[in-house]
Amino acid sequence: MMIPIKLPREEKEQIIEQLVNFYAEERSEELGSIGAEQIIDFMLREIAPYVYNRAIEDALKVVMEKSSSIEEELYALERRTR
């Protein structure tokens, strides 16, 4: 079960404002704050888990690449014995 993503109120209000502006500028539609908040809540509930999982996959890939690089560098530092 995924823990719901909750945004600090200030961040959510900023996103609401951005969404309202987007609707006005890009779609020439009026979207109120309540409607914008409902869209944001939907996106956090339904879409955010996919984005989150992709971010985890990307982070894991970077960590694995860095780990491999570090391993190679350590082997290069290894001293030869007779």
Tags for this model:
82 residues, mainly alpha, 3 helices, elongated
Task: Report on the architecture of this protein.
The chain has helices spanning 9-26, 33-46, 48-77. The protein is elongated. By secondary structure, the chain is mainly α. The mean pLDDT is 92. The termini are far apart. The protein is 76% helix and 0% strand. The longest helix is centred in the last third of the chain and has 30 residues, at 48-77. It is built from 3 helices and no strands. Helix 1 (9-26) packs across helix 2.
Bulk shape: elongated
Structure class: mainly alpha
Helix content: over 70%
Beta-strand fraction estimate: under 5%
Helix-strand blueprint:
Elements: H1 9-26, H2 33-46, H3 48-77
Helix pairs in contact: 1-2
Task: Describe this structure in a few short sentences.
This protein has 3 helices and no strands. The protein has helices at residues 9-26, 33-46, 48-77.
